What does this fold into?
Amino acid sequence: MATEDVKLIGSWASVYVMRARIALHLKSISYEFLQETYGSKSELLLKSNPVHKKMPVLIHADKPVCESNIIVHYIDEAWNSSGPSILPSHPYDRAIARFWAAYIDDQWFISVRSILTAQGDEEKKAAIAQVEERTKLLEKAFNDCSQGKPFFNGDHIGYLDIALGSFLGWWRVVELDANHKFLDETKTPSLVKWAERFCDDPAVKPIMPEITKLAEFARKLFPKPQA
Amino acid sequence: MAERSNSEEVKLLGMWASPFSRRIEIALTLKGVSYEFLEQDITNKSSLLLQLNPVNKMIPVLVHNGKPISESLVILEYIDETWRDNPILPQDPYERTMARFWSKFVDEQIYVTAMKVVGKTGKERDAVVEATRDLLMFLEKELVGKDFLGGKSLGFVDIVATLVAFWLMRTEEIVGVKVVPVEKFPEIHRWVKNLLGNDVIKKCIPPEDEHLKYIRARMEKLNIKSA
It folds into this structure.
């Protein structure tokens, strides 16, 4: 294929941008990474995503694609003859992967985020309990989907690995903030091992942000009220 | 390879007045797939529903040869990938992406915002109506020059957006405010007429009188004044 004109509007700290980047790396697609400045939105972002005005936006031959999971689908389908398949091949497995990816965004992440925005100890405790419960479901989902293999997608990382794995940096930041381990050898043994393998994957390692940098950024995004 | 063998078992756990359930019926009917419809009482959830969708405990749930799939958009993609006659998603990767984008927009933006109109009054309601109209403008623009959101024929986004045509717009007289007036949204009104010209749509949407009666009864139960 001739050099495609591929741009990605995003930021180093965004979970959703990371999903798009992992997918591009898996397919060995070269792209221009246009980093947004924190606190302002570029003209290009506003023009390419007039509906949501959010990153990531993939621009392929001048056509914008928005929404991280939709971008990952697009990358898999538009470059279906190169690199590994990101979505599983069987329709039922695809449905299961899509179901859990939607669960992660619509439910699991909402409860994780509410730990960071919790006002007071009671709210925080309740948020932590909810994340614990929801993470247990993800541990079971991993065991069901992986069937003894290293990733949700089987032998190689795929759609659902990317959907959850992109959160790992932020998840660690939340654990530090809450002083509570969610990924734990006794409670979630499968996910602990999976997380290590995921972060070590060559498509992931170069772009997983450093925890200290993320924690510092988190303090900017979620300032603590002055005592 | 036979796609519709006599031993194929398709069941749908749904609810007659739910837009999320009806969209599945539309897709199955468009593809000529026979299915057994199992009407669910969502106020008193059956053990079957809880067993088949233990995570979200919601309808619709499609059960294909004993295997359950939940989340309406996930189910729609599964149906399209499993029964290949009369495709509802376009073939081109970019167009598929746009179909997924707009469908998500209908469910996560239009639906969520429009729901807030119910039960509000005065300035608060005006603000939500304005917000809903701003979102609907995107659909209005998408319809210019097209018979359907899918183009020349009914597609994925049309099926999902029946929520707008036959739920949002139907409840206008009950809620007492024209959220989608024809002067502001001529394309949407034209599109609704086109939908009603389709036999499958006509067959699969809830009968209007019964539907309006049901909505009034529900609002009464929730102590919301209807017009």
Summary: The longest strand of chain B covers residues 10-14. Chain B touches chain A through 23 residues (CB under 8 Å). The domain at 93-222 of chain B is CATH 1.20.1050.10 (Glutathione S-transferase Yfyf (Class Pi); Chain A, domain 2). Chain B has ten helices and four strands.
